[in-house]
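Posted in: Structural Biology > Protein-Ligand Complexes

Title: Requesting predicted complex, 1,6-di-O-phosphono-beta-D-fructofuranose in pocket

I'd be grateful if someone could produce the 3D structure tokens for the following input. Sequence and ligand are given below.
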Amino acid sequence: MKSPSKKSNVSALQAARSEYQPKLPKVLAGNPSKVALKLGKPTRPLRDQAAIENLFQNTYGQPEAFFVSGKAPASMKKTIKVAMVLSGGQAPGGHNVAAGLFDGLKKLNKKNQLIGYLGGPSGLVENKKMEITDNLLVGYRNTGGFDIIGSGRTKLETAEQFESVKSNLLKEGVSALVVVGGDDSNTNAAVLAEYFKAHNDPLRVIGCPKTIDGDLKNGQIEVSFGFDTATKVYAELAGNVGRDCLSAKKYWHFMKVMGRSASHIALEVALKAHPNICLISEEVAANQWTLDQIVEQVAQAVTDRAAKKMNYGVVLVPEGLLEFIPEVKKLIGELNDLLAHNAEFEKLETAQEKIDFVKYQLGEESKKAFYSLPHSIQVQLLADRDPHGNVQVSKIETEKLLMEAVDLKLRHWKREGKYDGKFSAQGHFFGYEGRCADPSNFDADYCYSLGFTAAYLVAAGLTGYLSSVRDLLKPAAQWRVGGVPLTMMMNMERRHGKDKPVIQKALVDLEGKPFRTLAALRGTWVVEDDYTSPGPIQFWGPSEVADAVPETLRLERGK
Ligand code: FBP
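-- Reply #1 --
Done. Output follows.
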């Protein structure tokens, strides 16, 4: 293999890291002719079974699949050409999925080929592609980013798009497509798999569970790739800021962390860095806390610490918080329905015109919620939805909203003699900083195995499955690999004003061990400083450091 160190933009660390050979489960590391496919019992989704069965008549109910030691079917050796696409937001380890898929295909048959479609799902429609070769992969192995072939968020939904994808893949001689994506992208994968099967097309579709958000998990999928690395990066930053607090003792730091709807990232970072406060959106929704109640809780913590002369602190804010505050959730729901494909609204140019447009159409309660928000947040709530109908929460400055609202409340309390302290706040948003980091050892190994497993699923002729690697707390050699039927993870949700089948997002389980651990510790963190410095990701060194798994995973799956 050529060394990437010859390239001028490769750091010394990347050059050394490119030599890392990701670990593989024993069953995949051995001779492929000794890998048998074992199928389990028929499956069904946890919710909305009838609706999902009706929409996925050809792929519904498929059994779970496992690769075990045994005799491989002769068909596994057949020469195949496979396509792959990276979809949605970047997540550390995507390049190792490509490497694993490529190496898996070549191990099965040297003549197998891998074609990468460029810029996400739109590349499939527009037929933009390149061959992924061993040479190309040099320099991408064990690196972060999706730049090898790029990514995008185009939603494939029209029959016209499906037909273009089909004809482009068939013309290229491709027999299977691997979609590397999150819940929305794998919903795309499920719909495509169903479409191809319903039309008797010789095309198969396999997904890989990607997303830093950590919300693509369930009984079968233990964690999505990228979560480990991204949270390690954010936890390092949160730990550093905690140290800054202890040193300067003058700021309250409000840190919004990515994660879209679910608060898994905030929770994981809190478990690692021990901030004074960590808001969890799911808890807000469960307790039906209003925005004002949340502001009061934070202001109370500031007041209690001020009484101990601690006019500083760290507050972690999950990116999707606003969507979980009941009155704002209702408002967003109404706005989504109102703005979905609304030609009149789309013509409006200025922020004020947009605000005026919705003002007369919102219900009383939502109107009140809308006007209780600062102008900047009103504008942000009216911004374009993403192609899957989601509010783009990364563009909503929730940390600033809270900083301002807490400041206002404290001024009020000061006048009433309830608070005596100094409040100076700094806002941070940690999101993009972690999405393209070089993958941790855990993600490097996990992604490589996911890609390798996808190659075997494709070769086994399966379609409508998500590549799955389980028992992740065990050494990689003992990981169990196979596929989980995509329809098993689906439910019906309202998107763009319509009920649509989508892969169910996993939210933080308030009864689960990770949240209960936070709940048991956070009381102490509010009044005493317990900031921890997890430090930068380590690729070499003691295994408890270099090979550490996410805390959430350890708590959820540990004995
Ligand atoms: P995916 O769900 O596609 O993995 O995206 C993750 C994410 O990083 C979210 O945490 C964030 O809200 C969103 O992408 C930001 O999207 P964009 O990259 O379009 O700004």
